[in-house]
Amino acid sequence: NRRIVLASRPEGEPKPENFRLETVPVPQPGEGEVLIRTRWLSLDPYMRGRMSAAKSYAKPVEVGAVMEGGTVGEVIASRNDRFRVGDIVLCHSGWQDYALSNGQGLRRLDPDEAPVQTALGVLGMPGMTAYTGLLNIGQPKEGETVVVAAATGPVGSAVGQIAKIKGARAVGIAGGPEKCRLLKETFGFDVAIDHRAPDFADRLAQACPNGIDVYFENVGGKVWDAVFPLLNDFARVPVCGIVAHYNDTQLPPGPDRTPQLMGAVLRKRLTLRGFIVWDFAAQAGEFAREMGAWVKAGRVRYLEDVVDGLENAPEAFIGLLKGRNTGKLLIRVS
Ligand code: NDP
C-alpha cells in the first residue's frame, strides 16, 4: 500500500520535499468494514489549506499523516452488508492505494449513469460548488453580466455554463491563449480574457460595457483588482476561493485599501458572501438531478486533466496552484 504523507508544512509554495511516499502493508477489513482500492484521486486547491496549521473551517492534516482527498475506488473485500466486492464508491480516502472504511460517508456510484470520476468533478464537489454558490448567492438574471476566473477549471467552467443557462452573459478569465480558446469553443463563454495579458484590466472593462452584476470570486489578486471598479450597484460576489493567495506568506505592500472596499460595499450596496459548498449540503439532491440532466444533454461540458500514478500527485498538485492544469485535475491511481 503506497501512500503520500505530509512530510512538513510548506512556507509559501509547496515543494516536493513537503511530501513523502511511504509503503505500508495493505490493511485487512475488520467486522463491518470494507477494503477499497483507489482508482481516482481528486486534487483540489483546498488541499493547500490543509497543509497549513493556520486556523480554517477544517482541521489541518497532521505532519506524518496521509494527505486528505476525495477518491473514487473499488470495493475489493467486504465485511459490511451494504457493500459488495466490485462496488464502485465515492469516498474521501486520501492520497493512497488502499483504505478501510466502515461504510460511513461512502456513496455507491453507477458506472452506467456517468463516468465514475465525474463524481469528483462536474457531478461532485466542484460542480456543486459552482451550482450552489452561483444560484444561491450570485442569483444571475437574464441579460446580466457574470464574470468568473479560473474559468477552465471544474468550478469556473460550470459557473459560466450555468450562467448561460440562466440567460446571463458569461465572461471567462483564464491564463493563456489556449485556455481562452477552450473557454469559447468548449464552454461557450461570450468573451474570454487572458489574465496574463499586459492590458488585462482594460480588456476586462471593454468586455463588460454594462458593468458586472455577478463576480464569482475564485482567485483574488489582480483579477479582483480589475473587477472591483466594474461592479454595478447591487452586484453579488460569491466568495468561493482566492487561489492566487494560497501561497502568500504576508500581506502585499501598499496603501490600506480597506476604506475603499468598504466604501464601495456601502455606496453600491454590494453583497460579498463567502461560502463553503457543504453549507448547501441540503441541496445535494437537487444539484445531482439538475446538473446530471444538463451534463447528459450536453448543456454543461467538462474537461479532465488526468495524470497517471500516485507518485506524481505532489508535482501535479504544485502545478494546480500555478495554473498548469487544464480542467479537473485527477490522478489515475489504478
Ligand atoms: P482549478 O482547476 O480551476 O485550478 C485553479 C486555477 O486557478 C488554476 O488552474 C489557474 O487557472 C487559476 N489560478 C491560479 N493562480 C492564479 C492567479 N494568480 N491568478 C489567476 N488565476 C489563477 O480549481 P477549482 O475549479 O477546483 O477551484 C477554483 C476555486 O474554487 C479555488 O479558489 C478553490 O479554492 C475554490 N473552491 C471553493 C470551494 C468552496 O466550498 N468554497 C469548493 C471548491 C473549490 P488559470 O491558468 O486559468 O489562471
From TrEMBL:
Signal peptide: none annotated. Residues 1-16 are annotated as: Disordered. InterPro entries: ADH-like_C, ADH_N_2, ER, GroES-like_sf, MDR_fam, NAD(P)-bd_dom_sf. Residues 12-331 form the Enoyl reductase (ER) domain. Keywords: Oxidoreductase. GO terms for molecular function: oxidoreductase activity, acting on the CH-CH group of donors, NAD or NADP as acceptor. SUPFAM superfamilies: GroES-like, NAD(P)-binding Rossmann-fold domains. This is NADP-dependent oxidoreductase. It comes from Enterovirga aerilata.
